[in-house]
Structure formats: structure tokens, C-alpha cells
Amino acid sequence: MSTPRQPLTETILRGTSAPVRAVLERSLEGRELGRADAEILLGALGRDLQVLCSVADAARFDDVGDEISYVICRNINFTNICYVGCSFCGFARHKHEEDAYDRGLDDILARCHDAVARNASEVCIQGGIHPNKDGFWYRDIVRAIKAELPDLHIHAFSPEEIHFASQRCDGMSLRDYLTMLRDEGLGTIPGTAAEILDDEVRMILSPRKLMTERWTEIVTTAHEVGLRSSSTLMYGHIETPQHISSHLERLRDIQKRTGGFTEFVPLGFIHHKTRLFNEQGSRHGASTPEDLRLIAVSRLFLRPWIKNVQISWVKMGLKLGQVALMSGANDFGGTLMEESISNAAGSEHGDHVEPDTIERLIREIGRVPYERTTTYGRRVRPARAEAPLNLELAQARPAGERHGVALPSGY
Ligand code: SF4
User: Fold this and answer.
1) How far does the centroid of ligand 1 lie from the alpha carbon of residue 82, in Å?
2) Best residue for ligand 1 mutational test, from 75, 88, 89 (most atoms within 8 Å of Cβ)
3) Each residue of 185-229: pLDDT tens digit?
4) Do residue 72 and residue 42 come from a single domain?
């Protein structure tokens, strides 16, 4: 991290409050921020917020330059049947509900072939915790895809799914289970199901879900066997700045030990159709200042350990996503092609963005787009025509999904 000359620092920080100024000065000097620093920045408003975003944007330039990456990927949610009961989730269904679905291997494979025909390099596969599945179901998905599409990167199975599946696999240890998935062709895992890594908060959001230490164990073990992962945090519900700073510190500590996180993705809570908001009185999801603060604070707090900060356009929308990319973020995320989790909770930002649109949005803010692989290599796209949207597959989705009822905010 470079240290700008003092007069320039003075100009940049003019008009900020003393506490925010002190933290930003430390950051500009290249010093690692502590939890108390993050908590001060998480309260930034007005001039403090503007300067926080500018400093985070300058840090982003130092860390990764002016390029903005994106990935061509297709989401596949193989079932929405889930009995875990997270209160922030608008996606899960019980199996007798009209719009419950459980896709078989043929359906999943058809979606993978559709992804490849549309130039995807990755499929992101997650689903509800279906009580009738065993652990080998997850292996069979990976095995079937790799048998037909060996070059397609499989980014699949949240720590909650791995927690569930590894306990239903003939007494296999967690490490052996993850090794088996890796050997079958699993490429990376999503660092979802993290929400807020604090057990008091988790007991309110989802008491039947894996707790903080188990999430940490699964992600760390995945990294140790060579399965890298993303990292996430869900904000805008009942959490406090102290919960966020503790969560970020945990992620940074894991990264110092394993180096396995590919990126950090802050996920704003989509509140509309959730029990957490409608019955338990959570906040109204993430506000615009919260969206920008989370991007900026994560850039400053996680550097230099996690260099890629991703926006979630499906949570914040494309235009605010552009602002977030000028406030510390450097990755646009993916095309998704089929998003059904945020939409289920009431997001109105759609479920697909074409690569050309992503590149235009990036150029509009004066930055340089490039297509990446899941692990942030540069992808040279195969030279063949891209297939159009497969309307048959799109229309085969349950009505609730098509009309914007989609995965929960923590995905
Ligand atoms: S968030 Fe995931 S685990 Fe929780 S209820 Fe929804 S689908 Fe199930």
C-alpha cells in the first residue's frame, strides 16, 4: 500500500469528523484497521461517508488497479424444499406447497448444457436442505456434470449444505467428504450461509442452522483440501456494527491462515417477504448509505488479505452497483442467468445481466472490464456463437420464481 504525501491527505480528509479522520489517516498510512476502527467507519454519514468512499476507492486502485472483473455463470437451485426455517428466507418451501420443486440430475444437466451454450465458465449450484437427500446426492451432481462437461467450473454447496451432507455419508469425516467432492470435480464452494458469524444473532435468524464455529471449521477445512471459497456477510437486519466488525475480523483471520478466500461479497438483506421483517421486526433491509459503507469498510479492513470486493447487483441494483464500484469494489459478480433466491425475498433487480451490458456499465464509470474465471484468472472465451436465452428452461421455472420470488439474502 502506498502512502500519499501529507498535503494531499490533508485535502482529501478536510471536513471529516475527528474519529473518522483518525481512522482514515491510519488506513492511508497502510496500517491494518482494528475492530474499533471499523465500527467508527460503519457510522459514517454525510462528508464522512463521502470521504470514506473516496479513500476506499483509492485503496482499491492501489490494490488491484482500474480493471473490473466479472464472470459468466449460471445459477442452478436444484430444490427449494428446505426444513431449516431461516427467518430471513423467502425461498424455502415445504414439500407439499404448490410451488415446491426438486430437480433431478437430467434437469440439472440440461441447465449446465444451457450454461455452456451461453458461454458460461461456471455453474453455481445451491439448494434447500431437503430432508430426504443423503450426502451422496451432492457427489452425484458433481460426478454427472463432470462426466458430460469436464471443463465447466462447479462452484457449489454452501457450508450449510456441506454440514448437512457430510453427516449423511456413512460416517465419513468432514475432511474426507470435502476431499471426495474435490476429487469428483468440485471446483470451489460459495462462502454463503454465513449471514452474521455470531451465535446470538444466528439463534434469532436461524437456530437450526450451523453455528459460527462449524461454519469456520467447514470453510477452513475446504481451503485446506484445496477448495477455495468466496466469503459473504448479510447486513441490514438486526446486526450491529460490533457484529459486522467481529465477522470481518473472523474472515480476515481465516484468510491469514489459509489464503483460501477468492473474494468478499457483502449481501444486503432483502426484507419484503421474510418472517424476520414481517413478524420479528427487523430493519427494512439495507439502506443506500449502508450498502456503500459495507463496500468501503470491507475494502479498507480486509486489505491486503482479501483484495477482491464484489458487488451484489441483484441486491442493490445496477446503478447503485456502479456507485459501489466507485467506492471500493472491483468485481461485478456474475451474469447469473437464473437468480431465484433474492427474487424470492422480494428483490426487484432481475435475475440476469448479459456480458455486453456488464461491460457497458463498467465502461460508463470509466473503468476497464475483463472476464474472469471463478478464481480470478483471465478467461479467454471460446470462439463460438453464444446461444440465446433458453426460453423453455426459463419458463420451466416455478411461477413464484419467475415472478421474482427467489435464494435468501444470505446467498
Ligand atoms: S436460507 Fe437456506 S437453509 Fe435457510 S431456510 Fe432458506 S433455503 Fe433453507
Assistant:
1) 6
2) 89
3) 999 999 999 999 999 999 999 999 999 999 999 999 999 999 999
4) no
The response to whether residue 275 sits with its C-beta less than 6 Å from ligand 1 reads no
Q: Which element (helix H / strand E) includes 41? A: helix 35-41
Q: Answer with the one of 46, 63, 80 that is the final residue of a domain.
A: 63
Domain match, 44 and 83 both: no
Q: DSSP of 250-280, one letter per residue?
A: HHHHHHHHH--EEEEEEEE---TT-HHHHTT
Q: What is the model's pTM?
A: 0.92
Q: Which atom of ligand 1 is nearest to the CA of 209?
A: 3
Q: Is 189 in the pocket of ligand 1 (CB under 6 A)?
A: no
Domain assignment present for 270: yes
212/54 Cα distance (integer angstroms): 33
**Which residue's CA is minimally distant from atom 2 of ligand 1?**
128
Count the domains in the chain.
2
Ligand 1 lined by 394 (C-beta under 6 Å): no
Tell me the C-alpha distance between 21 and 42, whole Å.
13
Domain limits for position 248: 66-401
Q: How far away, in angstroms, is 174 Cα from ligand 1 center?
A: 21
pLDDT in the model for residue 373: 98
Q: Is residue 409 part of a domain?
A: no
What average pLDDT does range 246-252 have in this prediction?
98
Final residue before a domain boundary, out of 63, 86, 106: 63
H helices of 149-240, in order, are 159-166, 174-184, 199-205, 212-224
Tell me the per-residue pLDDT of 152-174, one tens digit each, with 9 for 90 and over: 999 999 999 999 999 999 889 99
Q: Which pLDDT score is estimated for 338?
A: 78
Is a pLDDT exceeding 70 seen at residue 402? Answer: no
